[in-house]
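Reviewer 2 asked us to include a model.

Predict the structure of this chain.
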Amino acid sequence: MIRLLLADDETLIRDALAGLLGLEEDLAVVATAASGPEAVAAARKHVPDVAVLDLQMPGLDGIAVAEQLAAQVPGCRSVIVTSHGRPGYLKKALAAGVAAFLPKTVSARVLADVVRQVHAGGRYVDPELAAAAISAGDSPLTPRESDVLELAAEGAPIEEIAQRAHLSAGTVRNYLSAAAAKLGAANRHEAVHVARRHGWI
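Predicted model (structure tokens):
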């Protein structure tokens, strides 16, 4: 029996997944969670074989949860399901050791098969997401530029970004203008849009 943890902040999706996967003879849902921190706590308590994680959850996103599970519950392998299949997310997930990455548009049958594949030591990446990631290429932004641009995406003023990033206001402006130039954007708002579209922030 393959023991599963399901984590998704949307109750309807989480319950539907639990119901559908629970119909499979070899799968048992042993825990569910509505946020990233809940997912980590549930995994530590129930020690599942496979965690099926929504990419975007409150507290910690699915990739951050997968990283914590790899360290704290090493026998548990992670599967990310998402409605945001941007190339940058896929690359981050694979770098974090996620075993499978697939869109929420797949059928329960496909998800069950992927869970079995992952439990057996395999990996799975949705072919369309993989093709998009290859064609998008790597982010031209440095990690620091990405961090600052992500803070700018929330609409914070320069001074607040500087404070949160532990940088001077002038350094923040330099990072933002460098990011905009690399992305061919006219300003930081356009740079945020371009970077988000590619999944780089």
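DSSP finds ten helices and six strands in the chain. The longest strand covers residues 27-33. We have added this to the supplementary material.
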